[in-house]
Amino acid sequence: MTCSSERRGVVGYTAVAFLTLGLSLPAQAADGSKSLAQADPTTAEEQGPPARELPPGGTSIEDLLLQKGTITMDEWIQIRAEQEYKAADQNRRLDSIEEWKAKTELLPMLRDKVNFGLNALQVQYGHVDAQVPEGKSQDSFSIRRSEIIFWGKLSEMIPRWHTLLEFQSTGLTNSTPDCSNSPGGNCANKPGGPPVSATFFREAYIDVRPVQSWAPTLNMIRLGIFRMPFGIFSETSGGLRDVISSPYLNAVGGGGGPGQNRNGTGGTIEFIQERDYFVDVRGRIANRLEYVAGITNNNNYQANSLVNNASGIGGANQPKALYTRVRWFASDVSFISFTTIQGESNNTGTLINGRGKGDFDRYGVDFRYTSKVFPGLMLQGEYWQGHDGANATTVGTPAQGSCADTAVCGGSGAPGMMRRTWYVLGKYLITRGPFENFEPTLMYEQFDPNTKMSNDLYTRTIVGLTYYFENFPPKIQSKIQFNYEFRHHSGLGTGPGTPAYDSATDPFAQNAFFVQFQVRFM
Amino acid sequence: MKTIVLGMVVIAGFLLGACASDSIFPPDATKGVDPDFDFTRWRMLPNQAEGKKVQLGGRIIDAATKGETVSIVVAQLPIVEHPAYGPKDTGKSRGEFAVVYRGRIDPSLLQRGNRLIVVGMTQSPNIFSVDDLPKSLPTVEAICVHVWKTGGREIGEFPFNAGGGYQPLVEETLCTRNS
């Protein structure tokens, strides 16, 4: 039997401990070798046990072996010391684990205070039939989204904080400058607004639940930047959408197609912004009616950059619109909602496309039917209309006020217009058989940029097929999507001053095909 | 005018909310439920409380379907009214129990982590497999069960908090034919 010096130390300690405590040890081993007890005559005399006497409580194997003379006293002590050492070592390890456990239990990550995940990582291939200028291609291979999400629960009163970072693009957004000091008094000669905002910063909000007992009737106050509660699509995370392209109600036009015009039918139009700054109150009544009521700056999510942190002046970032939504649930997952946004819009110092200066309103109705009769079938739709103010602008282009003279005021010079859009989407998730986890999808949508003008309609039919590798929404969703889009754009309107229209170069008038592979995990 | 309309909507909502009932089971199913049922005592002495009608909530740990019988192992959780009605994980589960439901339940509702409330009669303990280990657990013969498909999250986190988007919470009440 080998023994380290440390262990020998323990042997000695054990023996001394036994003697000090007055525990009787066998005085002599079977082979006649002296025990530690014998080495100290006084102690041996005090204890005075006969050599062959049984050790106290001696029922262990080593005691029996010692009693029978199979092992010596030295060996007995060594065995006991070994056992003691092991017990001490085990205690030390347990203490270490307890200490580590106490520390790790306090880690924010393990207390739901900090979590992170992949909201959506999407690799996309796309082909658009539209003619493109030299140096550009109809085909593209890109990262559509690379969104990292962080969130946590601090307390019952602050049940959630949330940030989302978009890494797919570090491009800067230009602000829309005013037209003062334009060269020659012509706003069109004024350079575009300087870059002000990168797009890493997408979402950041805090939920406050002021009184627990008021929830869920008054569930929470949410403040920050997030997807606005404007219909279904706008509020659905990019990692959970059923088709690859964003719907026209979020954005249509531009992208190489015709620019803005006096009819208000061209250029990029962000009819319903996906994200914005807001403070709102949310709750659920009678387990059937959800409501949201709040105020927003109505200027898109990049607008944080317009605020001067030194002076506090916020550019065009003041709250400008009130919104409400009521959503009535027919079942736990089927509902109909009514939304309205009322306020005003600005065309200077703005970061949102296609809006002018003046009164602003939106009215929307949306529905979702998730069938329990045919599990896997889901239908949804939205209908929106609303008014945009005069002299709409594209982000970065100089504009000022509601003014028809674009030479002086920039912008489109459009007098303001009513816009309208709607879509219906249906999908069916196959849950058994050889096509299990496949999901055919069909969507049709229309966008009318100016309801008082004909020959300006955007239409699109999307035929899609999705295969889910993992489908546990909202947390996990890995899938590959194939979408073919039949796109049509009638033109830019009618009447004098309507610009010439070439559908061959308009990407919204030419069909497109997209494939997208997505991973979402949190 | 707009502010008045908004105010009226909110006030009407609160009034409706005040009249709301959180009943998720048919009245017949919950009739005779022992409101003072001591779960801890039942866990320790399961044979002394046989045949009592109880309502218990918890988090699904494991589930198995055999023919027309579903066995669900549940970690007991307190049923709260706020922030949302249902079992809430306060970190203080008082132990596990089993639910035996005579009927079929969609497997997606039986996912680990889903929240559940059961109304049923207590039975003597039975052996159930938890993580492939046999375990004797006090059992409730279900009359009705209500399942929230939360996937491990709290009921109060829905619909606005789930993963950065709007996600309605799927829930379902199932009752046996004899109920």
Describe this entry's structure for a reader.
- The complex is a heterodimer of chains A (522) and B (179).
- Chain A has 522 residues and is mainly beta.
- Helices cover 13% and strands 37% of the residues of chain A.
- Chain A contains 6 helices and 19 strands.
- Chain A has helices spanning 5-20, 36-39, 41-47, 61-67, 73-104, 406-409; strands at 115-128, 139-152, 160-166, 172-174, 195-198, 201-208, 220-227, 275-285, 289-296, 321-329, 335-345, 355-370, 377-388, 390-393, 417-428, 438-448, 458-472, 476-489, 512-521.
- In chain A, the strands form 2 sheets. A 16-stranded antiparallel β-barrel of chain A has the order 1-2-3-6-7-8-9-10-11-12-13-15-16-17-18-19. Chain A has a two-stranded antiparallel ribbon with strand order 4-5.
- In chain A, helix 1 (5-20) crosses helix 5.
- Chain A is elongated.
- Chain B is of the alpha+beta class and 179 residues long.
- Chain B has helices spanning 2-18, 27-30, 39-44; strands spanning 53-66, 69-77, 79-80, 86-87, 96-102, 115-130, 133-148, 171-175.
- A 5-stranded mixed barrel of chain B has the order 1-2-5-7-6.
- In chain B, a hairpin with a 2-residue loop joins strand 1 (53-66) and strand 2.
- The longest helix of chain B is centred in the first third of the chain and has 17 residues, at 2-18.
- Mean pLDDT of chain B is 85; it is low at 13-21.
- Classes of the chains: A mainly beta (522), B alpha+beta (179).
